[in-house]
Amino acid sequence: MRVEFLYWEExxxxxxxxxxxxxxxxxxxxxxxxxxxxxETEEQAERLQFPGSPTIRFDGKDIVPVPEGTRFSLTCRVxxxxxxxxxxxxxxxxxxxxxxxxxxxxxxxxxxx
Amino acid sequence: MSAxxxxxxxxxxxxxxxxxxxxSTEDYQDKRALAVIFTCNHxxxxxxxxxxxxxxxxxxxxxxxxxLLINPNDATKYPDDSFESMVRxxxxxxxxxxxxxxxxxxxxxxxxxSRTPEIxxxxxxxxxxxxxxxxxxxEDPAKVREPYxxxxxxxxxxxxxxxxxxxxxxxxxIKWK
Lengths: 113, 177
What we know:
Chain A has helices at residues 14-27, 42-47, 92-112, and strands at 3-7, 34-38, 55-58, 61-62, 79-80, 86-87. By secondary structure, chain A is of the alpha+beta class. In chain A, strand 3 (55-58) and strand 4 form a beta hairpin.
């Protein structure tokens, strides 16, 4: 599985977000290299379609769908948690759900292929 | 750029608010404490703490405490921080405090602010008594162990020195022009 972690240094919670991602991978028994990508310029943000820091992708798919028309730029990302709170980083549950979704897609893809 | 030091006097200002009025620090001379809080619309840290600031203002208003929220961000790079968006947010969230626009960023620079949110709390003599973060958990109000700002408010209202008087501000960097 391809796991990407994109961040902008000026958002202070990226280390915590990376730790959460690694914890979820470990808890789910997934051995995968996490590609950590430091986004430093607006051009890079545009090219990488970076909606804000931190951003996590499994097999190229964002753990939270990025709405149409989102501006890609150097910014801190807003996550809406399950209970309605706003947070600068995704919860472990959000990461876990997206991970399981990606694993399901892979499994079904293999079966149908 | 270094931030205002504890013990420093308030730097007066007058800024336009989302309510259509210009708010001057002199308008609040009767208040027992004045909190100048740099914040913004787009930042998740500011959004995460927003509800707690609203609650604190409501709770402490009758004890003579006034918050002044200031958005200094460059709205050309961050359109969510435009004055129009500020007006919308203040209305949606029913802000119980003025929400002011620091268009030329001169107030943020004068205070040496660097993050949103970032609190500067002045006592009745308008001496800086607390500078820093609202508390120690931006993510979950139920898990706050150190309500720095609330403790500082209590200390200032009781004529005591807040402990701690300074905490590192946590949040998005101010978007300078």
